[in-house]
Specification:
The chain is mainly β. Helix content is 12%, strand content 36%. The strands form 3 sheets. The protein has a 4-stranded mixed sheet. A two-stranded antiparallel ribbon has the order 3-4. The chain has a two-stranded antiparallel ribbon with strand order 7-8.
């Protein structure tokens, strides 16, 4: 039971991760059929990494896992919203709670939030 139309977007569909309590948008990533099935099976958000070209459990490196509380599917069955409990306090790999930590003012990007963690410490790369 797939429920989604993976024929669009070359098999990749947008997945918006949103805090289930506050409604804050945490991130946008992509899912394919494999990551969709893993998400449904485990109750943890799985995505498809376009840069690494592989399945990705959110938080596998940082322990900032996203627990699925609810999944919404749009009218065209080609976009989902994962309403999640964000463990570890941050969804962004740059250390911010949300990947949307910058605001456009005029023609500049201004950081509007404080980081939750230091990515150099968490990822030790």
């Amino acid at each position: 039971m797939t429920m989604l139309n993976f024929n669009k977007g070359n098999g990749l569909l947008p997945a918006i991760a949103q805090d289930y309590e506050t409604g804050e948008v945490l991130m946008l990533a992509y899912i394919n059929e494999e990551s969709w099935q893993k998400t449904l099976e485990t109750g943890k958000a799985h995505y498809w990494s376009r840069s690494r070209n592989n399945l990705w459990l959110k938080g596998e490196s940082s322990n900032h896992v996203q627990l699925i509380k609810e999944i919404l599917v749009d009218c065209d069955e080609d976009t989902v919203v994962f309403k999640v409990e964000q463990l570890g306090g941050a969804a962004c790999h740059k250390g911010y709670r949300s990947c949307f930590f910058r605001r456009v003012i005029g023609n500049e990007l201004i950081i509007k939030d404080e980081p939750v963690f230091d990515p150099q410490e968490v990822y030790k790369k």
